[in-house]
UniProtKB/TrEMBL annotation, chain A:
GO terms for biological process: methanogenesis. One of its GO terms (molecular function) is formylmethanofuran dehydrogenase activity. SUPFAM superfamilies: Formate dehydrogenase/DMSO reductase, domains 1-3. This is Formylmethanofuran dehydrogenase subunit B. NCBIfam families: one_C_dehyd_B (TIGR03129). InterPro entries: Formylmethanofuran_DH_bsu (IPR016457).
UniProtKB/TrEMBL annotation, chain B:
It comes from Candidatus Methylobacter favarea. It comes from the Bacteria. This is Formyltransferase/hydrolase complex Fhc subunit A. InterPro entries: Amidohydro_3, Formylmethanofuran_DH_asu, Metal-dep_hydrolase_composite, Metal_Hydrolase, Metallo-dep_Hydrolases_sf. Its EC number is 3.5.1.-.
């Protein structure tokens, strides 16, 4: 039995790297600094170790050969999921380039709300260490942070020492829209977050009015989206008075039509604040199951985020038309590859087209795929790299055990070789 | 494998060869002396009438790291306009201002370049920089580690830690982030911006630390020198782009007390305030000062007219520059109590007075600095222009009548404000070879690159002579990388992976005691998880690590 300390997690998105994990053969136990997201993700056992073709166990070579044959026969293959480490994404993109596939990260419909804004107007953003040391006001818009990443507040707001704040317990936290599910946002000295609830559908209006108030535009109504304009004025005043406010949202949580406009309003508000002689930054929550990793690697390899295609022989980007589900539903795909090395619960959509799953051991399928190849999980079964939510820091994932499972990169490269 | 390059006209300033007809032999990747009679030549290339130089080295080009990838993501319209299709030997991708990694490698190699250095590797983002560069085929690469606005250094300086302690920290960081040099960007200014300071002059204090840019420059330049790192402190000065910043630049040179400094994209730091538009060229005075101060090297950061996207660590200045964003979208980031970045698309226009004069200032600088060993040819890719404009730039330097022809088309007021028309100098092929090969290699401390003498790696570029130097430099007849033919007639025929150049200066390991405490208290990563291991560079089978000795170390 071995104990491994300072284990980084690719699961929570916030890049916690202080876990202690006990390794007993292939069994893992998080013994220190676990949370409701990370602990089950690390501790999940290995069930499948052998690939299957048509539901029958085969060796890796046979599974790879079958996958290659299916892809060779396809006119428009689609690769979905894209939940793996940097090396896995490299191999995925090499394969996709070779076969002219569509590449679509499973979280892209959420992430698109950010990308559309980035590509239309840009933003001023920050990263977690800056939050930890500078943030004196955190405005949380439309997301329950502690459900997203249980240790966010403990790690980045209620840290004992900060370089630029005398007392981190005096930081202010304001929720707009979604109320928190627990008390993680209450400071160690008992200071509670302010909460201004409104339905998700009212956020566009609330955000727009808040931005108008930050800019000093008069608002004649008393209520905006169910929130008192006086309360929004108070938030605006606090944002202007803060030395380093941080406005955070999770694009995935803003699940309503044209939510990118809300992201844009918030991002432009942050810009406005920086033009009013104070500092303010945005912070996008994400980074789970390799989504930032997929977009980063796809970004440097193709120039575009991970919803693009190689079917013309060169990369083409369309954040709507290259949606894997859309293509499958419309009958525009004739082979489907699902890559998901992190989460056995994230299985591919059921489809009639030939399906190859390169997935974490333990997946159960409503419909058995034509080919299933269980792979190791980055950060458990093999070393690797994954991006944290703030999209700057790549964490070095450790190998914790010898499971004998191949890496995503090995499997996808083998398929490419076998074409 | 023995290759013979027969009868080419060789320009190899590193060995003092200036246009002599010579055979070159490459054995197993390295250039060798003419072998003893009876060794079989496996492959011979007839280079009679061709021009032979070492593979070119771009010593300052933004090719990898977070801000480059943000720039890529920001500009899908640029990529759409320049798609690059897959071939039997190359991957697909996209080009223009911030090409995809694979296309970066191909296009550099197709111009005869075999090495490029990413100048702004933030320690916290170094993994990404190396991972991106690992996906650049053919080229050797390396990075300068960005310090100077990192809170650890500023805390040390505020606490008046001695130079030895700072040297240890600098060396430790170079090891952890895998660099070959040290860069400082707007010294202390990126930190100051986080405290809401919007400008920081050379002698102005960071409002939190009380430390000035001048003190940071002196401290880091001393550290680099005392650690024996070949490449001088690489300085992106204060007040980039600000009219009148030539005085800051002159002051920086005068005040450094003879310590080696490399002033990067000097064009952006050579502005006066004369004339109707209160914007003028300081190039003559800057060049004269460079000529006199042998401790100073520069690269130019030439601008070219057209669309590009600027990606800089200088969040303070880029925030100001957002007013010029074209198209109007931009990003700035504060990063990890370590650094920052700003990405602003720019469209340089020849009919815009400022842009036109910037163009002329860059060329004046090239032509007025006497010693080609101390000036490197850069556009600060992609900030002044994409690297693909180098052949055009070479023609501007080598061909006075062409230069004057272009000059006559730019904004008329800018024509009046530049002395360019009166400068007769034309660069020779040997001078181009110095600027883009031997000089760059010497400046970074690459002992076996940038030259064609025996012992050098077989990085060789063969051009077909052409009076139109742009055409000549655009499309080499052959490019060899480590002795392998990678380009023929300006097209990739074969790819391979280059090496990553680093230095590993000595330091006292006890430096980690305080650093570990700092990481645990203030940062968001454990110290041991922060350090990049050697196998991270090589594990995907994409190249190798080449460690260069520091001065005082045995080779
Ligand atoms: Zn630069």
């Amino acid at each position: 039995m071995a104990e491994i300390t300072e284990v980084p997690s690719p699961f929570c998105g916030i890049g916690t790297d202080d876990l202690t994990i006990q390794v007993d053969g292939v069994l893992l136990k998080v013994t220190k600094n676990g949370c409701t997201v990370n602990t089950p993700a690390f501790e999940q056992g290995i069930t499948d170790t052998r690939p299957r073709v048509d539901g029958k166990e085969v060796n890796l070579g046979a599974a790879v050969a079958k996958a290659a044959a299916l892809l060779k026969a396809a006119n428009q293959p689609v690769i979905g999921g894209c939940a793996t480490d940097v090396s896995g994404m490299r191999a995925l993109l090499a394969l996709a380039d070779r076969i002219g596939a569509v590449v679509d990260n499973m979280n892209f419909t959420g992430a698109r709300r950010n990308f559309l804004v980035l590509q239309d107007s840009g933003w001023i953003n920050t990263t977690l260490t800056e939050v930890k040391n500078r943030c004196d006001l955190l405005l949380v818009v439309g997301v329950d942070i502690e459900a997203f990443a249980p240790r966010f507040f403990e790690h980045y707001l209620w840290n004992e020492a900060s370089m630029f704040l005398d007392d981190t317990g005096k930081r202010e936290v304001i929720y707009l829209g979604q109320a928190p599910s627990g008390n993680a946002s209450t400071s160690p000295n008992g200071k509670k977050a302010q909460v201004f609830e409104c339905p998700l559908s009212a956020l566009p209006e609330v955000a727009a009015v808040l931005r108008a108030l930050v800019k000093g535009n008069p608002i004649r109504e008393a209520l905006a989206g169910g929130v008192a304009v006086a309360d929004l004025q108070a938030i605006a005043d606090k944002l202007k008075a803060a030395k380093y406010s941080v406005v955070t949202w999770a694009a995935g949580a803003l699940a309503y039509s044209q939510a990118e406009l809300t992201v844009q309003t918030l991002s432009e508000m942050v810009k406005d604040l920086n033009s009013q002689n104070t500092r303010s930054s945005g912070l996008t929550l994400g980074g789970k199951e390799g989504d930032q990793t997929a977009n980063q690697v796809c970004g440097w390899t193709t120039g575009y985020p991970a919803r693009m295609r190689f079917s013309s022989g060169f990369p083409e980007y369309d954040p709507y038309l290259n949606d894997a589900n859309f293509l499958l539903d419309n009958g525009e795909a004739d082979a489907f590859v699902w890559v998901q090395a992190f989460n056995a619960g994230a299985v591919p959509p059921v489809t009639a087209v030939p399906t190859i799953v390169v997935g974490r051991s333990g997946m159960t399928f409503e419909k058995e795929p034509d080919v299933f190849i269980p792979v190791g999980t980055p950060g458990i079964d093999h070393a690797g790299h994954a991006y944290r939510m703030d999209n700057v820091v790549a964490i070095r994932l450790k190998k914790l055990r010898d499971s004998g499972l191949p890496t995503t990169a090995q499997v996808l490269s083998a398929i490419e070789q076998a074409l | 494998m023995l290759i013979k390059l027969t009868g080419g006209t060789v320009y190899d300033p590193a060995s003092g060869i200036d246009g002599q007809q010579q055979d070159i032999y490459i054995q197993d990747g390295r250039i060798v002396n003419k072998p003893v009679e009876d060794i079989q030549v496996d492959r011979e290339y007839d280079l009679k009438g061709k021009t032979v130089m070492a593979g070119a080295i771009d010593m300052h080009t933004h090719i990898g790291g977070g801000k480059v990838n943000i720039a890529r993501t920001l500009m899908p319209e640029g990529h759409r306009a320049d798609p690059v299709a897959r071939t039997h030997s190359t991957r697909s991708g996209c080009g223009h201002a911030t090409p995809s990694t694979f296309v970066t490698g191909y296009r550099y190699a197709e111009m005869g370049y075999t090495t490029g250095f990413e100048p702004a590797v933030l320690p916290t983002n170094a993994r990404q920089a190396h991972m991106e560069m690992a996906d650049i085929p053919i080229l050797d690469k390396g990075g300068y580690i960005m310090l100077g606005s990192d809170d650890y250094l500023l805390r040390m300086m505020a606490a008046k830690k001695d130079q030895k302690a700072i040297n240890d920290y600098v060396a430790w960081t170079i090891h952890a982030a895998k660099g070959i040099g040290v860069k400082v960007v707007n010294a202390g200014g990126i930190s100051a911006f986080k405290f809401n300071q919007r400008r920081l002059d050379l002698d102005e204090q960071n409002s939190h630390y009380g430390v000035t840019p001048r003190a940071i420059l002196k401290t880091l330049a001393t550290a680099v020198k005392e650690l024996g790192i070949a490449h001088p402190l690489h300085v992106h000065g204060c007040n980039l782009g600000v009219p009148g910043n030539m005085n800051t630049t002159l002051d920086t040179i005068q005040g450094i007390g003879g310590l080696p400094l490399h002033l990067t994209h000097i064009q952006f730091h050579s502005y006066g305030t004369e004339g109707d538009f209160k914007f003028s060229s300081g190039a003559a005075q800057i060049a004269e000062t460079i000529n006199k101060n042998k401790n100073i090297t520069v690269d130019v950061g030439q601008i070219m007219f057209g669309q590009t996207v600027t990606a800089s660590g200088d969040s303070m200045i880029q925030f100001i520059n957002h007013k010029h964003a074209s198209p109007n979208k931009w990003v700035t980031m504060d990063i990890e109590c370590d650094a920052g970045c700003g990405i602003v698309p720019f469209k340089y226009k020849d009919q815009n007075f400022v842009n036109a004069l910037q163009w002329a200032i860059g060329l004046e600088t090239f032509l007025l600095v006497d010693d080609p060993w101390r000036i490197s040819l850069t556009t600060d890719h992609p900030n002044g222009a994409p690297f693909t404009s180098y052949p055009h730039l070479i023609r501007l330097l080598m061909d006075r009548s062409f230069r004057n022809e272009v000059l006559s088309t730019i904004h008329p007021e800018a024509q009046k404000m530049t002395t360019l028309a009166s400068i007769n100098r034309e660069y020779s092929l040997q001078e181009i070879a110095i600027m883009t090969r031997a000089g760059a290699a010497r400046l970074i401390g690459l002992k076996d690159r940038g030259g064609l003498g025996s012992g050098n790696w077989g990085d060789v570029t063969v051009y077909t002579d052409n009076a139109d130097r742009q055409l000549m430099f655009e499309k080499p007849a052959y490019v060899f990388k480590d002795g392998e033919l990678v380009v023929k007639d300006g097209k990739i025929v074969h790819t391979k992976w280059g090496t990553t150049h680093v230095v590993k200066p000595d330091f006292d390991v006890s430096v980690e005691k305080d650093l570990r405490k700092y990481f645990d208290r203030f940062l968001t990563m454990k110290l041991d998880n922060f350090k990049i291991s050697d196998d991270e560079i090589t594990e995907d089978g994409r190249g190798s690590l080449t460690v260069h000795p520091t001065k005082g170390e045995a080779v």
